[in-house]
Design goal:
Elements lengths: L6 E5 L7 H9 L9 E6 L1 H10 L5 E5 L11 E6 L15 H19 L5 E4 L4 H6 L7 H9 L5 E6 L11 E5 L6 H7 L2 H19 L9 E5 L14 H15 L3 E6 L1 H9 L5 E4 L2 H12 L4 E5 L5 E4 L16 H15 L13
Parallel strand pairs: 1-2, 1-5, 2-4, 3-4, 5-12, 7-10, 8-9, 8-10
Antiparallel strand pairs: 6-7, 6-11, 11-12
Length: about 350
């Protein structure tokens, strides 16, 4: 009996941004259709407009159930979400209506995944200010999905697959110990427990991506220092000695192949050369800037710790480019590919080590 390909829900994101265009462009690439099916969650009229923008040849097929989706390079199933007011939103302009539409797409797709109607989620970007203006006060997808799934221990990882710039066989993931917060709040949120939890989540995902078997050698995880020069023996701060190094020691006792803390300004270069499979960054820009300089257009955002598979593009709504026909789909293609990998190895997406102490 022929096994059915896994099914991904791809959310449209904020319709005033580049999300619909990145999906429409990615749909024209035939390679991924051989391995996975997809259904777009959003407004069919917006997706038709996006296909016209990129001169795509796919036909929109409106479905009422994700299970009906029979996708191909020529057929784009779309499960309608939200109301028709979204069609009249001015393109390339931040609007509460765009935030509401993106929220509807995410909540609908997450419910489908939790109910087992789809095997994973791939999300196009939402605009955080538009989301808040619509009355949904979440700093981003990660926190919203954590709330929808009823979990607290989640982390955000940017991932680059192996290639010329990343020598590791599994690629390179950079997970973040703190999420979307003001820089002044990082110090209050950074704890040994949080660093170990993030390292565990990174270990789990990189094991799944890299090996496909729990019996393989554990991923090597490097931990960033917080302060310049790693604190320079507490001259520039004591967080390394007081918080980060104890976390590394605790993680090693829990079975992680954990190393550090190392000065952040050189650690990513070492990891890209193949010394580490994953890094734990202490805050958002410490990890994002470095990895995006290495390969922004191929990067994938993976939410760690959810009971469902979720990947995303590693860029925002790009309202300066939206609906001009200039948006690239590289990150969307990579997000679809990584989601398919994780769905196939979902049995490995759980921590299988001793409890941290």
């Amino acid at each position: 009996m022929r096994r059915m390909k896994p099914l991904l829900a791809i959310t449209m994101g904020d319709p005033t941004g580049v999300g619909p265009e990145t999906i429409a462009r990615a749909w024209e690439h035939p390679a991924w259709h051989a391995h996975v099916r997809a259904v777009v969650i959003g407004h069919p009229a917006i997706m038709r407009r996006a296909l016209q923008l990129v001169q795509g040849s796919a036909q929109i097929v409106e479905v009422t159930s994700a299970r009906e989706a029979a996708s191909s390079v020529t057929h784009l199933p779309c499960l309608a979400c939200g109301d028709d007011r979204v069609v009249a939103l001015p393109p390339a302009r931040v609007d509460p209506g765009g935030g509401e539409a993106a929220y509807c797409c995410v909540t609908t797709a997450c419910e489908l995944a939790r109910d087992g109607q789809v095997d994973g989620l791939v999300t196009a970007p939402l605009h955080k200010a538009a989301l808040a203006a619509a009355g949904h006060h979440y700093p981003g997808h990660t926190e919203l999905l954590a709330k929808l799934c009823g979990v607290a221990n989640v982390a955000m990882m940017l991932y680059l697959g192996p290639g010329e710039l990343v020598r590791g066989s599994a690629g390179l993931g950079v997970a973040h110990a703190t999420l979307h917060c003001a820089l002044r709040d990082v110090f209050a949120q950074l704890t040994p427990a949080r660093i170990v939890q993030t390292a565990q989540l990174a270990h789990v995902v990189m094991r799944a991506i890299g090996s496909g078997t729990a019996a393989s050698a554990p991923p090597r995880v490097g931990v960033c220092a917080l302060n310049p020069h790693g604190g320079e023996d507490t001259l520039f701060g004591d967080e390394e000695a007081r918080i980060i190094r104890p976390a590394v020691e605790r993680g090693r006792r829990a079975g992680l192949d954990l190393h550090g803390p190392f000065p952040a300004d050189t650690l990513l270069a070492r990891a890209a050369a193949g010394e580490f499979d994953a890094l734990v960054a202490m805050y958002h820009d410490q990890g994002h800037i470095a990895l995006k300089l290495l390969g922004m257009h191929r990067a994938v955002n993976i939410t760690l710790g959810l009971p469902v598979v979720r990947t995303s593009v590693a860029h925002g709504t790009a309202h300066d480019l939206a609906w001009t026909g200039q948006a690239r789909c590289d990150s969307m293609l990579a997000a679809i590919s990584v989601a398919a990998q994780l769905v196939a190895r979902k049995h490995l997406l759980a921590w299988q080590g001793p409890t941290t102490t």
